[in-house]
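tool_log.txt
---
The assistant was asked to compare two proteins side by side. It first ran the structure predictor on the initial sequence, then on the second. Raw inputs and outputs are pasted verbatim so the downstream comparison step can read them without reformatting.
(1)
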Amino acid sequence: MPDPESRTRRENRRIAKRAHRRRRNSVVRRVIAGGFVVMLIPVGVSFGRALTAPGTDPWAARSVEWLRDQGLSRTVDWVEHWWYTNNPPPVGGKPKHGLPRAAAPTASGDPTPGLLPVIPLPYIVPHLPTPPNMVPVVTTPLAGEGVWQPTGREVQGLPAVYTAFLRPDPVHTSLVAGAMWMDTELLKTMFVPGLREPGGPHALGAEVPPNLRSTLIAAFNSGFKIASSLGGVYSEGQTVRPLVSGAASLVIYNSGKADVGMWERAFHMGPDIATVQQNQALIVDRGQPVPGLPSDPNGGWGAALGNRVWVWRSGVGVDANGGLVYVAGPGLSATTLATLLQRAGCVRAMELDINPLWVSAYTYVQTNPTDPAAITGAKLLPTMERSNDRYLVPGERDFFALFATG
């Protein structure tokens, strides 16, 4: 029979070995955990810098953009595509609050919305003809659907901006898109680079500076991030990214006149060009939505989400008279966006940014009758997410601003 004392010694040795293994494993785990912590410090620092960098993007948007910058764009795109595909816009119905009301025109120095009395002018101010009303897409339109209304601050006694509202397709009839027509005879356009996009110089500080606000009439978002634009940017005398032949381009001349067309068909670089901002391919050309929009065979319009996902989208184009037209709204595909731009009179048009955080457009209202630079933005659509000062404080992304001429 085993000696009780030897059994006790053997049991004590087993207990001691187990205790040694536990101590050793604990040390190994601590070393591994410490190594992970050391490895994560640069990641945490990078993420912290992204969250605290100057700009106006909310923390969720900053987090998503940080993930993209870490090489996880495909993962983010998949998640976004899954979300929008499984959360489509509602079918049928009517807009809950009806069509939005446009910000009524005001003269400089008059902060009270409302039509002004006609003031005889000593000469006829050069201006474009008012655009014809849009033909609604829905067969039973609401009162005022597609009707252009003068909006925002006037220029030399004339409305320089008109807005119209209509539903984007016959299926999602509770949604409303907005259109903004801008008179390029009364307005000059300026490209304002953001703190991060598209890179290169941003002499204006990524906002409309206070000294220019007395003549600010309207502003709207630019295109995709430069890495996703399939195009280039020329701004402030520098090629930020090489321009791409055939890309859809918003071109601003030194005079401030803006135009939209295909690069190296409608435009060629010359000393009279101040800005070229390219984004994908044209979605309206020669007055018609371009072939291939429903299938998007070359990935020319969908970028991350694809052209058929119903999502907030925006676009800009020009009509036959040279007027600049911006269209935006929720629940749009590339095809419905092109249809709206066509119905707004565009002969050429391009897609701009998509997703609710990046789509924003404003006219401006004077808040102090004695200070024309004291202004606030009036959203084109009340459902646009960004605040009314979106382009009056430094932001991460580029945009376009339109100012009174003269």
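(2)
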Amino acid sequence: MLDLFQYEFFVNAFIACILASVACGIIGTYVVVKRIVFISGGISHTAYGGIGLGYFLGINPLLGALSFSLGAAGLISLLRKYHFQNEDTLIGIMWSFGMALGIIFIGATPGYVPDLMSYLFGNILTVSYEELGLLLVLNMFILTITITYFEKFKAVTFDEEYSKSLGIKVEKFYTLLLVMIAVTVVMLIKLVGIILIVALLTIPPVIARKYSRSLTQMMYGSIILGLVFTLFGLFTSYYLNLPTGSTIIIISILGYAGSFLINTKRALY
């Protein structure tokens, strides 16, 4: 197994798993507790428009995905601020619009477009040094914001009305949370792909919540579970010659099912 680390592409994939698991564990915890999984899905699918634009302009598709994800986060924040009644409907439209726009941009790009499926379903074995650098910067951003404003995020996540009574600017921190979700989405695109992002963002925190007594414990548990699922999926997919992103998700779902079996046995005994 250690022989795999002589390959540059595998080392890059291993590091990407670690970086993505940290971000995913932190932000996924907020997503699950706040119950905004659908919003996360809307942001992730809108990112496909940015990927298409990146190919069309000849720039790194992840930069295009980041711009579209941040734009989607900003739009959702505005909808919430002005109490738009059909927010979920518009998020669904935005979801479809991003995917459709990405396909149009890619169709308009001259020549052959490589690695397109890796952005839909993930292919962490193709992560480059440039992309690792971007992932590291995004990870540091998430860690810095979370550590600096942890208590305020905690208050906003559990009770917005109480947070307002404490003088916390709820809308500001909700918007910042959406921005961090957008950043996390970009980090997960090469790992599991746009189609499967929501699963990895939610499964580890959902399992960790069963065995946690605080938000901090839930975050640590989510990070550890994310590492287990992604690294086990990485090695499994390599040895069995399977798609990496899909393998990671299948293993995550098996872990989720296993958590139910553990709870059932505890109830019986």
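---
observation on (2): The mean pLDDT is 87. The domain at 2-268 is CATH 1.10.3470.10 (ABC transporter involved in vitamin B12 uptake, BtuC).
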